[in-house]
Amino acid sequence: MLIPAALSSFLPLSLLTPRLGDSSQSYNATCKHIARSISYASDVYYPGSLNFINGTQHWVPSSSQVSACSVEPGTVQDVSAIIRSGGHATTLGFSSTLGVIINLIRLNSLTYDPVSSTATLGTGLTWDQVYQKLEPYEVNVVGGRTIGIGIGGLVLGGGYSWLSNRHGLSIDTVTGFELVLPNGTVVDVTASSAPDLFFGLKGGYNNFGLVTKITMRTYKQGLVWGGLIDYTGDNINKANAALVNFSATNVLPDANCVLHIIFSEGIPRASLILFYNDPTPPAGLFSDFLGITSSSSSLSTRTFLNFIVGTSRDSLNPSHLRGTLSTVSVPDITVPVVNEYYSTPGVFSSAPSVAFSFEPFIGCSIIDTQNAAAFQYDTFGTPLLLFFAWPNATEDAAGFSAIKMATTAITQAVINDGQDLSDTVLYPNYALGDTPLESLYGANVPILKSLRFKYDPTGIFLNTGGFKFV
Ligand SMILES: *[C@@H]1O[C@H](CO)[C@@H](O)[C@H](O)[C@H]1NC(C)=O
Ligand SMILES: *[C@@H]1O[C@H](CO)[C@@H](O)[C@H](O)[C@H]1NC(C)=O
Ligand SMILES: *[C@@H]1O[C@H](CO)[C@@H](O)[C@H](O)[C@H]1NC(C)=O
Ligand SMILES: *[C@@H]1O[C@H](CO)[C@@H](O)[C@H](O)[C@H]1NC(C)=O
Ligand SMILES: *[C@@H]1O[C@H](CO)[C@@H](O)[C@H](O)[C@H]1NC(C)=O
């Protein structure tokens, strides 16, 4: 019945299938119990208040539902009090329906320690807030690529970043978590203090408690070069060819790009983000892309924050469409794979928004930094992101069916291309909600299930959103 909004709002959205509360009176009693248990640093909000709306809103409305109340804890002690209230309620039989949303927005502290070169981030922060707060120190962390994304969900699900080609995923750079266990105990989780939880939290989401702070290594950050380039539909083939060549030839860990192929009501266009982690990219590096006629371009030397804000446009959902993400892991972005990618929207051609995003990460440099984690991605496949969106609930079934067909078609194209997917896991932050755990966590599934049982024997956190180790 507890759902940490900042962890789940922006990530595995499709998981949060609406479950309507049938015992709102009991939930109200829990809300009042929580209100009595917390300090003045925290508040409980009910439907109708602005804070409630903020706490229950999702990036896609198909993931939302009306809860009995939204709680904004201001301290880790109050998080503990709320979880104990919820746990108490669970033992009284209020299981498996959502009643209380925990909005982590007040846990927004950030401290930077230049001696250890780490930053400790409250999980109520979004990545753009993090980058803004780190800018004066001229350092950065391995975090999200889009404004508005909460830090908790991205890190706990892995965390691909513009800095990943050099430093790995977010989970590879975490040195500690502050975790409120399902029994309310607050623990500092590090590789030495609690190696099992440290392993589990790196990709295993909120199965073991609620993370309130994350400590990450920092890296020196100066000005970057990059921006957004738009291509009309007639140039998509050229953009795809440039992408395939870039993917095959790029060895520079400071360079990357994302190519979004977007169909709006069936009309195709492409939008490309180029990134180089230095004020000027090497001559010729992006010349294939730059040689294609574009309809607009915003390349410049700029701060990292300015780059993130300026390139987030196509990752947002301004019309608040319903929708879902899906993913395929691809060892090599090749011509037949790309061709399959942009020929699939026929299965859902009326949709207002069907998008495929190619992210040509360099596998080997990521793997070099990999350490034991729940999300063990050492058989590398770069995550391809699918996002299908539609306006009405009546289209939900068709939308989910279409994205599954596209996912299957692209997976088959990768296999037909001779690429081996047998040991490749899918990126949890992009995966469809009903993806089997084995496809995300491979051989780690039994370990993660027993870890979940050890720390949450009564299954309090099975009532939160996300992939669950049951
Ligand atoms: C729950 O509490 C809210 C806010 O106090 C109130 O509007 C609603 O009627 C209550 N629901 C029930 C079933 O008591
Ligand atoms: C609601 O969220 C917006 C955007 O994050 C924020 O600016 C505003 O202060 C929030 N309002 C309340 C009442 O929490
Ligand atoms: C592919 O990229 C490499 C490296 O940037 C470049 O030298 C080569 O000309 C490109 N090939 C094609 C066919 O564009
Ligand atoms: C679906 O959404 C569109 C666009 O908002 C609207 O015109 C249409 O009437 C809706 N259809 C249904 C069945 O609700
Ligand atoms: C809470 O759980 C942890 C881990 O299982 C355990 O070490 C601790 O004693 C428990 N605390 C309470 C108060 O039950």
Automatic annotation (TrEMBL):
The lineage of its organism: Eukaryota, Fungi, Dikarya, Basidiomycota, Agaricomycotina. Residues 1-21 form the signal peptide. Belongs to the oxygen-dependent FAD-linked oxidoreductase family. It comes from Hydnum rufescens UP504. The keyword Acyltransferase does not apply. The keyword Signal applies. Keywords: FAD, Flavoprotein, Oxidoreductase, Signal. Residues 45-221 form the FAD-binding PCMH-type domain. GO terms for molecular function: FAD binding; oxidoreductase activity. This is FAD-binding PCMH-type domain-containing protein. InterPro entries: FAD-bd_PCMH (IPR016166), FAD-bd_PCMH-like_sf (IPR036318), FAD-bd_PCMH_sub2 (IPR016169), FAD-linked_Oxidoreductase (IPR050416), Oxid_FAD_bind_N (IPR006094).
